[in-house]
Every structure is written in C-alpha cells, then in structure tokens.
Amino acid sequence: xSELINYRLHVNGVEHEVADAxxxxxxxxxxxxxxGLPGSKxxxxxxxCGSCSVLMDGKVVCxxxxxxxxxxxxxxxxxxxxxxxxQDLSDIQAAFLAEGGVQCGFCTPGLVxxxxxxxxxxxxxxxxxxxxxxxxxxxxCTGYGRILAAVRATQESRQG
Amino acid sequence: MSxxxxxxxxxxxxxxxxxxxxxxxxxxFAFSSDLYAEGMLWGHIVRSPHPAAVIxxxxxxxxxxxxxxxxxxxxxxxxxxxxxxxxxxDQPVFAWEVVRxxxxxxxxxxxxxxxxxxxxxxxxxxxxxxxxxxxxxVAAIDADPIHPLGNVLYRQKVRRGDPDAVxxxxxxxxxxxxxxxxxxxxxxSGLAIPAEDGGIDLYIATQWLHVDQEQMxxxxxxxLDKVRVHLAGVGGAFGARExxxxxxxxxxxxxxxxxxxxxxxxxxxxxxxxVHRHPSFMWYRHHADSDGRLVKVEAxxxxxxxxxxxxxxxxxINAASFAPGPYRVPNAVVEAVAARTNNPPCGAMRGFGxxxxxxxxxxxxxxxxxxxxxxxxxxxxxxxxxxxDTLITGQVLRGAAPVAEVIRTCASAPLPAGDPAxxxxxxxxxxAGRTADHNRVRRGVGxxxxxxxxxxxxxxxxxxxxxxxLEDGVATITCAAVEVGQGFVTLxxxxxxxVLGVEDVILAPVGTVGIGSAGSTSASRQTxxxxxxxxxxxxxxxxxxxxxxxxRHGVAPETLEILDGRVVxxxxxxxxxxxxAAPGEVLEETVNFRHPPTAELDENGQGDANVSFAFAxxxxxxxxxxxxxxxxxVEITTSQDVGRVLNPVQLIGQLEGGIAQGVGLAVMxxxxxxxxxxxxxxxxxxxxxxxxxxxxxQIAALIEEPEPGSxxxxxxxxxxxxxxxxxxxxxxxxxxxxxxxxRAPVRPQDIALAGQAPSQGPVSSxxxxxxxx
Lengths: 160, 773
Fold this sequence. Notes:
The structure holds two protein chains of two kinds.
Chain A: E1 4-11, E2 14-22, H1 27-34, E3 53-56, E4 59-62, E5 75-77, H2 91-98, H3 108-121, H4 127-133, H5 145-158
Parallel strand pairs in A: 1-5
Antiparallel strand pairs in A: 1-2, 3-4, 3-5
Chain B: H1 21-26, E1 41-47, E2 53-59, H2 61-64, E3 69-73, E4 83-84, E5 91-92, E6 98-99, E7 105-111, H3 114-123, E8 125-130, H4 137-140, E9 152-160, E10 169-177, E11 189-194, E12 200-204, H5 209-220, E13 227-231, H6 247-257, E14 261-264, H7 267-273, E15 280-288, E16 294-306, H8 312-321, E17 331-340, H9 354-372, H10 376-383, H11 403-411, E18 441-454, E19 463-471, E20 474-479, H12 488-500, E21 504-507, H13 526-553, E22 560-563, E23 566-569, E24 575-577, H14 578-581, E25 586-594, E26 612-625, E27 631-641, H15 648-667, E28 673-674, E29 677-678, E30 697-703, H16 720-723, H17 725-737, E31 743-744, H18 748-752
Parallel strand pairs in B: 1-14, 10-31, 12-13, 16-17, 20-21, 27-30
Antiparallel strand pairs in B: 1-7, 2-6, 2-8, 3-7, 4-5, 9-17, 10-15, 11-12, 11-14, 15-16, 18-26, 19-20, 19-25, 22-23, 23-24, 26-27, 28-29
Helix pairs in contact in B: 5-6, 8-9, 9-17, 12-13, 15-17
C-alpha cells in the first residue's frame, strides 16, 4: 500500500513510534497490532459496543472510530494503563472480579475504562446514572447485574 | 494460552473468583483475536453477496496482481473433503457451482496487511447468475430441492396415547419466533501456524476442539495427529461457535503460504459467518377437561434451517419432544420439521428448540386459563410435571422435577413497587427519549415456565475425558472442556480442591494434543460431564494417594480421609499434609466419564432419549407505551431447578445473562431478512439489551433437589434462564395491551399499529409461511 506514514503516539505515559503504517489504520488497530496493547477489544469495529473504549485527553472514546494518525499529540490511556502495578488491580478491577462481573471477559476492559471515567467525574452515581454511563458498553454474558454490583461495591468502598 | 494458576482457596458451594479473572480485568487475557506470530499474514474470506446464485466462473487474477497478496484459494484448492458439518458434511468449505445463502464462503485471501487482504477480496471477480431464493420454510418442504440432499433437513413426529382424544375445552393458535443471533462479543478469529511435519497448529475460539479437529482433518486431507487444535481465549459462544467458521479456510491459507495466518471477522462478517437460532412457525391446539387438566396437545412446528444442516436434527427433536412444555399430557400428536431454505444457516443457540416451543405452549396455557376462567398459575400447577410422570416421548421422569416449586416460589415473590403514572420520565418506555405519556402507559405482568433437557441425548455416546496429576501437593488438571465464559475453569479448581484438599490447582493449556474429547460446551452439559470427569480423575488420584500413605504407615487405605489439606486416619495415627504425603511420587490418572446411555426416539417419537431435565419459571413486569408501542421491562423474577449450587455468584451470572438474552428475544432482537438478505448485520441495527434495557432480576428461589446420577448433584443451569424468560415478557405485554401478540420479538408496530389493516407482516416472515394443522 502506498499511503504509509510515520508518527508518534503517547499511550499510558509512554511515547511510541509508529513506523510505515497505513494512513487508514484505526487507533484500535495500532494499539492492538503495532504497540502490543491488545487490552482494548474489537467486538464490533463500528463504535457501537464500547469494547475498544480508551481515554483520549480524559474523554472516553471508541478507539475503533479514531484514526490513529489523528491521535498524535493526545494523551491516551488504555485499560493496560489503569492497573496500578505489574500484578495489582485497581479497586474497580478487583470489584469486577469479586462480584462476578466477568464471564467471557471480552467487554470487561471497555467497561473498566467506562466505570473508571464515570467514578472520576461522578463519585456517587445513582443506579440509573450508572446504567446510563455504561449503556454504551455491550455485554452479552452477564445481563449487567454483577457489573452493577461491582460498581456499587467500588462506590461503597471508596466512601469508606 | 498461558497456564492458569491460583492460590486462592475455594471449594464447592463458595463464590470462588475466576482463575482467569485477573488477566481479564487487566486486559491481558489472550483472546483468539489477540494472537500474534512473527511473519504472520492476514486472511480474509470472500463471501457470496447473493442468497441464491449459480457460479459461472471465478477470476482471481486481479487479486493475485496486488502487491502483498500471498495466496488466493477457492474450492479447487481444498485437498480433502470439500464439505463439512457437525452432523453430516453438507456445507461447502468454499461454494462451487452454486451459492445457497448470502455470506457463503467462495474464496479466501492471505496478504501482508488486513487492508490489502480486504482490497484483494474485492478484486476477485465471481460471475454469479442470481436465482430466485427459496426463503419460505413452509413452502420449502415440498419445493424443488435446493441441495442434493433435499429440503427436509429433519422431521420428528411424536405420537402418544389416543390421537382422537378430545377435551371439553379447546384452544388453538399460530405462533412465530424470529431469527436470533448469539451476538457473542468476541468475533470469530484464529491464528493458524504451519508445522514442520506438514501439519497445522490452529489457535481458535471454539466450543468443541475435537470435533473441529475431525472435520478439519477430513477437509485438509491430513491425519488427525497433524491437525492440532489449541484453545485460544473465547469471547462468549452461546452456540455460535459449535459449527466450524474459518477453521478449514485459515488452515489452507497457512499451509499454502507456509506462513502463520490470522483472521479476525468484523461484526458484519460475524453475523454472516455463524449459524443463528431457527425461526419457528408453529400451529398448536390444546385440549383440556373442564377442570383444566390437559387432555391432548397437537402441534405442527416448522423450523427454518437455512441453507445447511448444522445441528437442525437436535433442534427439531427438542422442539418436538418438548412441544407441550413442563406439563403432563396423556395424548399428543406432534410433528416438527426443519426445512432447508436460502436463508442463513441455523443451528445451535442457548435453549435450542425448547425456547421456540415455549413461546407457543405458554401462550396456549394462558389462552386456556382465560377460556376456563382459571388463574393461569393455578392452571399451570394443575398440570405441572412431577417425578414419576411420563413425557410425551414415553420417558418417565426419574430425577428431580420440582416444577410446582419453581412455579409457586416465582409467582408468590413480591411485585416491584412503582406506578407508571408517577414515575420519572427516564424510567418510562422510551427512556432517555422521554416519549411516553404517563396516561398512556400500562403495566402488565406475565408468567412462563420452561423445560430443557441437559447434555447430549438420543443415543449419542456423550463422554468427557479428564486427567489429574498430583505432585508435592500441587494438582494439575487437563481437560479439553472449552471455557467460553461460563466458569468451568473455576469449577474445575473447586472440584479438585474439594476432593484432594490441595490449594494449588493448575489448569493445563487446552487442546486436542494429549487428551481426549470433552464434548461440546453446549446443551448445559459441562458441569455434569467435564465436572464429572475432573471429579472422577481426582477421586482416582486420591485413591492412589491413600494407598501410598497406607502402605507407608501400615494402615488400611479405607481408614484414610482428607481433612483441611491433610491425609488423616480415623484414629489420627496418620496425620500428614497432602503436599508431604507421597514424597517424590507423581500420581496421575485419566478418566473417561459418561452419563448413562440414552436411546434414539423411534418413528413415533418414543424413547428414553434424555438423561436429565431442568425447569425454570419467569415472571415479567413490563410498562408499555400504547401509542408508540415501546416496552420497558421493569423486572424479571425467576425460580430455577438447579440441583445443587456449586458457585453462587457464577450461577447468578448464568441466570441474569440468560434472562438478558430472553429479554432481547422478546422485544429487541431479530436478524431481519428480506428475500434471504440479512438487513441488519451490525450492532447498530441488530440491537441487544444494554444496561438501560436490562431490568433487575429477582431470584425468588434456587431449588436444590440433588439430581440422582449427577456427579455433584447439580444440574446444568445455562439454558433454562433463556427458555421461558422471553415468553414471560411477551405474556406481560399481552396483559398490558390485551393484544394477541403471537410473534416474538414484539416490535413497536405490533402494539401501536395493532388492528390496523392491512396487517404489518414482518419482512422476514415468509410470504405464505402459515403452518397448517
């Protein structure tokens, strides 16, 4: 292909070189296939399911709908950047696990990103606000009940 | 996949966390679409744009001229059997001469970059002569065959008792259910790596590794041992992965190019590339005496099998066998037929066959209650199956059958508070759209009960193999049971800890190498079958451990037991940690577990075809906007017959998840077909429940009557939540609107435009698809 370009992306606090990439590649593709960050998922590639959710300059976006080359200069945080350490879990991640919010796990990274964003901006959401905040993240296994329980548990533990 | 291990204690009955949970929440779990190999190519499958056409020629030269394209394959390149299929190989790997459904594979490409592969796919010129697609399954039964094997995929009759029996009260109805998609989040994907021995290593998301291997070997013309199928992380399944998707095509591309090849479907290709739930067209007539006791059920059920057989046989048998539902019926005249059409192939989906008929028989029970002037719950209780009763197949219920208990507990649970007249607008039908007028919102309550068989049936030799290895207090379990999200990995560790008293349980990577088949992760079977195999292997190892300890301490093995991680004798003369009980010894046992044999149904549908059944009841509360036809499902209450709770949080996850798919089937989800063309192959247009659509689930009761013969007393729990939940939701909409609503999913126009002539037939409905008595 002729439209090959070089650029840099700032992901999870690290500067990444992207070399000889096709101009049409999505941010999701570049994260997964070029930068070794497959945590963001590819359930629909149409901006409908939220499995590819990442934070871009502090806002949740579907990385499948962002051209990677247009994300140059943005501060990108993926699910891999939300874990506090090599082995550790964030309180949200731990709650997803403890409350049964994970089954197949394909929607989980996107939900972790969405819930992280929700609780950053609204530390004490009502259940309806939680449902609305995660309504862009499709899950086919859980029926959302245990995911809502995980968010509730996180809220409660943060409030001590 | 990497080996999974955990040190967290947790035995049967506890809400143990998943061993794969940490990598899943961190985004580090390797799903099949996450795989990478040095030098890998990207594959792409070229699919038919027509539901029916003659292939006059295929010109691949344009694709081969594109720089970066490494291979293009068509039917001529399949070295072995050119067809595949779960039950019978009637489906082409690549179509030749004709295509029979929109999306049928015709060619495949491998290239350096996925975009190059996509462009190459569009550069392949297939000369099609489109023909008129056969899309009405009722008409298809007697139409000219569209396949050498004919248009009747399977036919199952059930005749019981007196066919001329007549009841004092008779109700009749026609019902339809639409084509539902499994919509598993993880798209079909895999990585094929050519091996030095001329064979292939395929890393793939599937439901049954060994049956994939058998089908692949036949098509690739390779011996079984050169086809090694390894399980990659599975992003949900629900039946969608029971048939082969890309397994043969991706392997052919890797073998041809001698390079690793990766294929990842996008969502549209996923919709086109796996089977769906059979649409059903059903005619029913129920006879009852004046007290409401069922006298006879007559049913004729036509299932749209689409272009190829897949698992239509099992779906048809289930539809016929469970045509009356969980009720005692002395007389039955039932026929179910799966017909071949030019619609997308249909096959396995959670609750297969039993979900479609539940929609009809539960609507019939409500009609019967109304005619009799009986409470619908009371009518169901009067007819509820109980142990010792005989099904219409002649099989006597030997196991637990707490049908009345699931009905009673579910029906008597408290109803949710709230009145549509005073609710906030966002909680009304239409939600954030704020479309509902409080005065035109009606609340309705509906009820449904279902029956589902567990495990493989009809004489199939259903087996699972597991190996347990114990060394210095660490147990390693090898079993090819596929984890699709349901939590078998958790259960396998719980069982091992329970039997052997160890804490550390390693689950070996899963594949076809070095272990026999575990059967499919379907039909609610893995807890019983592979759970049983793991338990049996652990028990065999424990026996050897006791023999070793006994000979070392001069006691009888029968006096030993495991308590708190220690091997102890009754008199405590022996008291040694499991980890130190057999120093230097490796204890390993492999067990092949089978459930008791079953029989094939005879020509009258009679026979002991099943091992076990599970029952569930659902009560739905809905608010309906009468003017716009919008439905808000307010709450679902359920009771389920589970045998024994092995992991409470995982069990609740199965119930809530299955109910969500039932809510979808009731009011949201349908693959819309227009003359064989799928019109909504995306999550934009095929809408599945979000967190705003899914109501709270109230679990009224988990009925724990241990199932005789079940290795841990538990029944499979995955399917019953879906079987009757959709029926309950539609019953609630009927109660709110007074409309007949004989078709699922219920669409807004079915409510808002009801009674307006001409009736608004769904585009997916066959033009003449009315099933006759």
